[in-house]
Design goal:
This protein is α/β, with parallel strands linked by helices. The chain has 19 helices and 30 strands. It is globular, with a radius of gyration of 29 Å. It binds adenosine-5'-diphosphate (ADP) and zinc ion.
């Protein structure tokens, strides 16, 4: 029996007489003094356990059993990430209330024979008219349709005019129709779509990398794969990095298939979660669109997984079970004998390499749809044309925005920093305001009148006096965030209608949809945004994108800094000029000669990626080798150091195996915990999991120290 708890292993229970339990059944079992839900897992009970020590399974739940495929997937993810299987199972049981059979819904229908003496008032007549077709309706719906108060229905029931009935269950999702006509595909789109349809129709595992510049029509192409999957009678899953970005995506899906897909993300109400989970399990959600956790839903027969924007780091879950949803999507597809399609304008080096070596099939759309040109990208050398003192927009960028607005077109300023200023300094003594819990500066949020740590959420008021030297009103903001760019833009273009898009101003899908609509309807002239504006959006009137600090992502310089910066800036640039009007992109940089800027200016990402690959190959860096990180953390700094040192001493070695560290993590203190990192690097043909297991088994780590394992790390903070 596997329980959705971070226990090391499955537990054994006895099946009491009269109860039939099969692998996959959801069951209730006693654990300590409580009753918990779990899943009957595969494998034999431990023969060493005396039969009489076993406790009885209490009941089998009336829910579709967990499929063998999903059970194997849970085991696989647990093994790969070195997580307790129960912790992974918990992700697959994220809506426990869905395991209860849904309560039947009651409704009303017209009485077979209307009683003679009953009074038929005009309101009552309206109700009877609504019910005249003989169908039953739920009370709320009926009252609304007839325009009467619910009390009217009760009165009518007492008078024998209507009778209560149980309503037949309605399908929770209208099935999308694969055979509605989609847009006429261009020849190269058609070719790619046919290739994808063929892999889906084969009903066997295969992974395809679909690339093409932003706006080349990749979405329309994979919609055809979804259509084929529906014709095959199997489910399709589309993973998107941030569900907030999907408002426009959903409109397009609805236009193509005539129905909305099921959604899965963290903002769902518990009721929608329960119903969606149950619908998926019962095969009633033919297409599901979701964030990474949607991988763990109980699809009975998955035929296709699409991972859109596959290069996105948001697919990596960094807390709890640390896993990469893109990689696990490939695994889930393999276990399900399904097709997997990875989609990106700027694929990760990992996926590009897999395509190059033939592990993945590759499809490419060379040009933008409708003859739209790729935007012209120029670097603005901030050394030569710096902004005025205390400003952040250089004269060339200001001029370009002014011209764009004068033409009645839209412009966007991109800066991947929330708040007003990333750092606050005392003019008198030079003291910088730091988070008390983290190795991080406090970020000023001027509109909210406070300082905030973006790592732990700590907030405090902006101090009147320097906490270090006591000087009054001495603090000054250093550097820009989007709020500060907004201030500058307001002064420069007082007539322009401005909109800030950041995760704190656009908190969820509804707000994002409203913002997108306002932009599409030209109620906005200038958009100032963080990375939430970078991806996916199609804004037809947007022709200029200004990147306020193109060098930002290069700081810190971890393994993937350059790759990530190119990907992000290319995505941002791709928002410009998506229809007839040509787009222009200005990158403000202090290092315009940097290969990242050059790749963007010349629009030669392939050459950049090839150079990046050449840089990683000799040292066996991913994707040409494997990495796993250990993050040692404790509230007690000495304990963290000691454990990190012990792990360092016990580190594995040998041909093709190397351990770097221990070293303080760049975020050396996070939420009050001291953090040290070790990095295991191996040749690609050496699996890291057995090495990690043996390594961790050698070191006794005290209770106040946590060691987190991160296989295939993406972030290095
Ligand atoms: P990508 O996913 O590659 O960024 P999209 O699929 O979003 O590109 O396509 C860009 C724009 O072109 C969208 O507005 C889309 O509706 C439109 N488009 C793409 N292909 C076609 C087509 N064959 N016919 C009509 N419009 C298309
Ligand atoms: Zn903090």
């Amino acid at each position: 029996m596997l329980l959705p708890l971070p226990l090391a292993d499955a537990y054994d229970y006895r099946v009491p007489p009269g109860l039939a339990v099969r692998p996959g059944n959801f069951v209730a079992v006693p654990l300590g003094g409580r009753e918990v839900l779990g899943v009957a897992w595969d494998g034999e009970p431990d023969p060493a356990l005396p039969e009489k020590r076993l406790r009885n399974i209490l009941s089998v739940l009336d829910a579709p059993p967990m499929t063998a495929t999903l059970r194997r997937f849970v085991d696989w993810v647990a093994d790969y990430t070195l997580s307790p299987p129960g912790a992974v199972l918990r992700m697959a049981m994220s809506a426990p209330s869905a395991l209860e059979p849904p309560a039947p819904q009651a409704g009303w229908r017209r009485a077979a024979a209307l009683p003679g003496g009953a009074r038929i008032t005009p309101t009552r007549r309206r109700v009877l008219e609504v019910l005249a077709d003989g169908a039953a309706r739920a009370g709320g719906e009926l009252a609304e349709a007839a325009g009467v108060a619910p009390a009217v229905l009760r009165g009518m029931a007492d008078a024998g005019l209507i009778e209560p009935v149980l309503l037949p269950r309605r399908p929770r999702f209208v099935p999308p129709d694969p055979d509605r006509p989609g847009p006429e595909l261009r020849p190269e789109q058609h070719q790619a779509a046919e290739a994808l349809k063929a892999t889906v129709a084969r009903r066997a595992f295969a992974t395809t990398l679909l690339t093409g510049v932003t706006g080349s029509g990749k979405t329309e192409v994979y919609f055809e794969a979804i259509a084929e999957c529906l014709r095959q009678g199997r489910q399709a899953l589309v993973l998107l990095p941030e569900i907030a970005l999907s408002a426009q995506w959903l409109d397009r899906f609805r236009a193509r298939f005539g129905a909305a897909p099921a959604l899965w993300h963290s903002e769902l109400t518990s009721r929608t979660r329960r119903e969606t989970w149950r619908a998926v399990a019962e095969g009633e959600a033919p297409v599901l669109v979701g964030a990474r956790s949607a991988l763990f839903l109980p699809y009975p027969d998955l035929g296709l997984i699409v991972v859109d924007e596959e290069h996105e780091t948001a697919f990596k879950q960094e807390e709890g079970v640390v896993y990469h949803a893109r990689d696990m999507a490939v695994v889930r597809a393999r276990l399900s004998a399904a097709a997997c399609v990875l989609v990106s304008a700027t694929p990760s080096l990992e996926s590009a390499n897999n395509a190059q070596t033939g592990r993945y099939a590759a499809l490419h759309l060379p040009a933008r749809h409708g003859g739209a040109e790729m935007p012209v990208v120029e670097a603005v050398d901030l050394r030569r044309t710096p902004p005025e003192r205390g400003r952040f927009l250089s004269p060339p960028l200001v001029a370009a925005v002014t011209e764009t607005l004068a033409r009645g077109e839209q412009a966007m300023l991109f800066l991947n920093r929330r708040g007003y200023a990333p750092m606050t300094l005392c003019r008198a003594c030079g003291h910088r305001l730091r988070c008390p819990n983290c190795t991080a500066w406090l970020v000023e949020h001027r509109a909210a009148r406070r300082l905030q740590c973006h790592h732990c959420g700590h907030v405090e008021p902006i101090p009147e006096a320097c906490p270090n030297c006591g000087a009054a009103h001495s603090t000054v903001p250093i550097g820009p965030g989007v709020e500060r760019v907004l201030e500058e833009a307001t002064a420069l273009w007082p007539e322009a209608r401005l909109l800030v898009m950041a995760s704190d101003t656009i908190p969820g899908p509804a707000a994002a949809a409203a913002a997108a609509q306002a932009i599409q309807d030209r109620q906005v002239d200038l958009i100032i945004g963080t990375q939430i504006v970078a991806k996916g959006w199609h804004f037809p009137h947007l022709t200029l994108v200004g990147v306020v600090d193109a060098d930002l992502g290069l700081a810190g310089g971890d393994l993937r800094a350059s790759e990530r910066t190119v990907q992000l800036l290319h995505q941002v640039a791709g928002r410009a000029g998506r229809e007839e009007r040509p787009g222009r992109v200005l990158l403000q940089s202090f290092v315009p000669e940097h290969p990242v800027m050059q790749a963007l200016v010349s629009n030669d990402l392939d050459a950049f990626m090839a150079a990046e690959a050449d840089g990683r190959r000799p040292g066996h860096w991913p994707p040409f080798g494997r990495l796993a990180a250990l993050i040692v953390s404790s509230e007690d700094e000495r304990a963290a150091d000691r454990a990190a040192r012990d792990l360092g001493l016990a580190a594995p070695g040998g041909e093709g195996v190397e351990v770097l560290g221990p070293a303080p993590a760049p975020l050396a203190i996070l939420r009050g915990r001291h953090r040290r990192r070790l990095l295991l690097k191996t040749r690609r043909d050496i699996a890291v999991q057995p090495l990690l297991e043996a390594w961790l088994a050698k070191v006794q780590v005290p209770n106040n120290v946590r060691v987190q394992v991160d296989v295939d790390p993406v972030g290095f903070l």
